[in-house]
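Section 5.1 Outputs to date
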Amino acid sequence: MSRRVIEAVKTAVIVLLVISAVALGLYSRIFPIPGGAGSQSGTSGDPSQTFGESRGAAKPMCIAVTGQDGTHTAAKYDGEELTSVFEKTVKLFSEALGSAGEPTAVDEARWREFLLSPGVYYEYYEPVPMAVLCAWLGTEAGAMESSNVAALCLSSDRLCFRDGTGACFECATAVPADAVQGLGELCSERAVFAFELDTLEAFGCGSQLLFPDSAAHRLAVSSEPMIGQEARYELLEALDAAVFERSGYMEGDGTYVYVATDFTLRISPDGAVAYRFSGEAKRRQSTFFGDIEQAERICSKLLPLFAGDADYCYAGTVTAGSVTVTAFDYCIAGGLLSLPDGAHAASITLEGGVVTEMDLRLYRFSLVEEERELLPEIQAAAASPGGFRLVYDGAAGDYVPRWTLLTAAE
């Protein structure tokens, strides 16, 4: 055999080995998904390892700014304004949370004092574990790691937050006392806390943030995301699994199926995505907080690809032993999108730090010009002292805004 032929054979073998190594590397990174959607930068249970990388679920439901004169302006129903105000204030909260001292329990009166003082207020759809929120904001929870947060307010150099049970806590921070001054012009809508109105205080309406001038709300519509070949490739690429693009097959109803030795990934034309891992994966040390962070990292890569005008928000986590199931919902224009089948936008199961199940609903949402007049918020608060929330109900086709009452747990 000539030297030229030998060298050609060597070259071919090297190329095959490189291709095999790349494919194996992609396979080991994604299936099973160890630390987020195909990212080797995923955590091993410590959310601090991914600080600042994903903020999708860190954006609150609403933001209020209280000026020096005690008046409130806020952003909630205008998604673009909410995003803009969040981007201009998030560093303040990141610095405040990262430098916060030991939290001290305070009463309702102290919480209200914070809300009436010059400062910035964030409120979330569902209480978020403090360690996870801090990771999303690019900092550490420190002494507050075991807390969760439904709302928080930064005034001067002090931070006050309310947890999911309604308990309130205060702590000192390293934020300069004058950092929140001059923020009153960030928001355009007039707002008021329920307890500031004598009529609502008599009803025991608490500290819900109300928008007196926002009675009309636009309808939303959804469409199937048209997951054709290009969209399927985008989805696989987001999972760092584009190497499997040619290995899928289509079922009679248009569902694309990707099967390997120990996993199945199904992508339906109606936007339903289901991943199931059936093999034996190397379990890693993980934590409750780290599992939530991994789940959010997956959502941050996948949901925005198709969601249109909608965002996504944290919807809660349940645990059983080493298994955690974390859910995220779609939200739009200050309201939760209630999907027709009651499903979440994403439900992600991790066991021992490994993603074993994933269900997504990839819908594309858009707001239309048609509006629906709802009961003004002050009247709605009087009728529901426990609180209320804007929900977009998709049971009848279009997503129609309506108020829904909150229970004490919510």
